[in-house]
Design brief:
Layout (H helix, E strand, L loop, with lengths): L9 E2 H4 L5 E12 L2 E6 L1 E2 L13 E6 L12 E5 L1 E5 L2 E6 L8 E6 L1 H25 L3 E6 L4 E5 L5 H17 L4 E3 L3 H4 L16 E4 L3 E4 L14 E9 L2 E8 H22 L6 H32 L8 E5 L4 H14 L3 E8 L3 E8 L4 H11 L2 E4 L3 E6 L3 H8 L1
Parallel strand pairs: 1-4, 17-18
Antiparallel strand pairs: 2-3, 2-9, 3-8, 5-6, 5-9, 7-8, 10-11, 11-16, 12-13, 13-14, 15-16, 18-19, 19-21, 20-21
């Protein structure tokens, strides 16, 4: 089986995903955006393709390709993006590289290897999803911040947990991956995953017994190099499931940070890790009970306050703090039954603003309009009841109310 090396830019990463330094020659340089696109006759830089972000790195200019010169005299040009079009790979740089210039390229190996860990873990996960559930991988995104995988059917929390365990078991078996370049006749006899129709030479990445998939990206030689794969979260997405995951060093950093947080929490509760969920449940129940008690006390206090109002008082303006909206609405109704004017209750404080409820037997709209025009209040409602929010001084609201 022959590879497609030589068609368009020679793709060194197809031959060896671990080659991070290479020599080549610039065959073109074109203005592009705020920089230039450099075309080399060969490259180890992987372009943005197949849902994976591009490699970054540097080009060092020298007199001839492969020359052992003084590195201090070489001009270093950062490569901050790489794209592919019609088999030609474009290296985006800030400084032009003259045609015919010999260059030494160096990719950012830490970034490359991290991407290899993520992408290889994705193949294992997708392979198990396909074999166990028959779902297709219909979306994949690999950036510096996150890795997402979209599948064509639903997966429960238990399904995801089981799949994660299968992937890690495969990682720890440390078996080899293979890159295949089958001819057309051989390809027709193979059953493999692919997200799109492919023209020309097809490159397959195989994890024996787990997955066979058409893929253009660099992968690890052995699954053990992935280290670990961790599902961060999952959600329903377009009738299927979206998985957020991390692998390798990224997963290690995530788990290290989560462990640090768990340590802080357990110390705060003066308990061990296994007891933290129970302590949190207890704290939540205590908080709910306390809030309920405070709400009942606030409601009783407000009821007493309303009962002490002079019966001949026409308009009523009260201020509260932290009272439940349902309680406030009932209080406004109680006031309007006893008083002929407008009832208004403003809950909150001057620093953070007030949420308010207005009620009247006649109309609250004149006051609602005044609050909006004078203080920029936001809200709405009916003729006899309105609610909203406003940021103003208590005394100014009272003056407006009067």
């Amino acid at each position: 089986m022959e590879s497609n090396i030589g068609q368009g830019t020679e793709k060194i990463y197809y031959k060896d995903a671990y080659q991070s330094v290479f020599t080549a020659r610039a065959i073109a340089c074109e203005p592009a955006g705020e920089g230039f696109d450099v075309i080399l006759d060969a490259t180890a830089f992987f372009p943005e393709e197949g849902g994976q972000s591009a490699d970054t790195g540097r080009l060092f200019l020298s007199g001839s390709a492969g020359r052992d010169g003084d590195a201090a005299k070489e001009e270093c040009i950062p490569v901050f993006d790489v794209r592919i079009r019609d088999g030609i790979i474009f290296h985006r740089v800030k400084t032009p590289v003259p045609e015919g210039t010999a260059v030494r390229g160096e990719i950012d190996w830490a970034r490359r290897f991290s991407n290899m860990q993520q992408h290889s873990a994705e193949h294992l996960f997708s392979g198990f999803v396909h074999s166990r559930f028959g779902y297709e991988n219909v979306g994949f995104h690999l950036s510096d911040r996150e890795v997402t995988m979209d599948y064509s059917g639903p997966l429960t929390e238990a399904d995801v947990s089981s799949l994660e365990a299968d992937v890690n078991a495969a990682i720890w078996r440390n078996f080899e991956s293979r890159q295949l370049f089958p001819d057309k006749e051989t390809l027709e006899t193979l059953s493999f995953r692919s997200k799109k129709e492919i023209e020309g030479q097809v490159r397959l990445v195989e994890y024996p017994g787990v997955d066979l998939c058409a893929c253009c990206a660099p992968h690890v030689r052995r699954t053990g190099e992935i280290g670990i794969m961790k599902v961060v979260s999952s959600q329903n997405y377009k009738g299927g499931t979206r998985i957020f995951m991390l692998a390798g060093e990224r997963a290690y950093r995530l788990l290290t940070e989560e462990h640090r947080i768990l340590q802080d929490v357990s110390r705060g509760f003066s308990t061990s890790y296994p007891n933290v969920p129970g302590r949190i449940r207890e704290l939540r129940e205590d908080t709910i009970s306390l809030r309920r008690a405070l709400a009942e006390a606030a409601a009783k206090q407000l009821e007493d306050k309303i009962g002490q109002l002079p019966e001949d008082l026409e308009n009523v303006c009260l201020f509260t703090a932290g009272v439940d909206p349902v309680v406030l609405r009932k209080a406004v109704n109680a006031i309007t039954e006893r008083h002929s004017g407008i009832a208004g209750i403003f809950d909150g404080n001057e620093e953070n603003g007030y949420r308010y409820i207005l009620g009247s037997r006649i109309s609250v709209q004149p006051l609602q309009t005044a609050l909006r025009e004078n203080f920029g209040a936001k809200g709405g409602g009916s003729e006899k009841m309105a609610q909203g929010s406003v940021r103003a001084k208590k005394e100014d609201i009272e003056k407006l109310f009067a």
